[in-house]
Amino acid sequence: MAEQGPASGTADPAGQAPTRQVMLQKIYVKDASIEVPGAPLIFSSTAQPQIDVNVSTQTSKLEGDHFHIVITITVTAKHGDETVFLVEVQQGGVFLVSGFANNAERGAILGGYCPSLLFPFAREAVADFVQKAGFPQLLLQPINFEAMYLEHLARQRAEAEGNRAVADPNAAPAH
């Protein structure tokens, strides 16, 4: 998603807008763990566990136009009240995001596009851990991080409007 042009974030000699760039600088596993509390007895069970997948993202600003994104994927497999396995992977990435003067565009890049680039690596790490723990392959389905980001923005707006209504019950509704 990088456009060709002058150096990152600088205007070209013709006075055009800064070059917009999104570049993955570093990708790494920040943290990973697996627990199989019932091993080795759990391997004799033929019951199909209930799989629960939770995904979250966290963004923090580094120096300049660099940002740190972490996707956390937690997979819990349970049979009744018994945990069959628990896998958690935190996949991190450092991104250069420059030339986006509009905060909404930069937010969409950081909240949707960047996590989408990290997800395949996190999905692979989860699959490897589950298999190395002695269980059948677990393939996580693709995730639409752009849609997740838009849902997050909608929730924030709804909460802000709810807080304004509570703060001033006599105020006219916003349109």
UniProtKB/TrEMBL annotation:
Molecular function per GO: unfolded protein binding
GO BP terms: protein folding; protein tetramerization; protein transport
Key word Cytoplasm present: yes
Alphabetic keyword roster: Chaperone, Cytoplasm, Protein transport, Translocation, Transport
Alphabetized SUPFAM superfamilies for the sequence: SecB-like (SSF54611)
GO cellular component, one term: cytoplasm
Coiled coil: none
Keyword tRNA processing included in the entry's annotation: no
Location within or outside the cell: Cytoplasm
Function per UniProt: One of the proteins required for the normal export of preproteins out of the cell cytoplasm. It is a molecular chaperone that binds to a subset of precursor proteins, maintaining them in a translocation-competent state. It also specifically binds to its receptor SecA.
Subunit structure: Homotetramer, a dimer of dimers. One homotetramer interacts with 1 SecA dimer.
Stated family: Belongs to the SecB family.
Name this polypeptide is given: Protein-export protein SecB
Biological source species: Panacagrimonas perspica
Encoding gene per record: secB
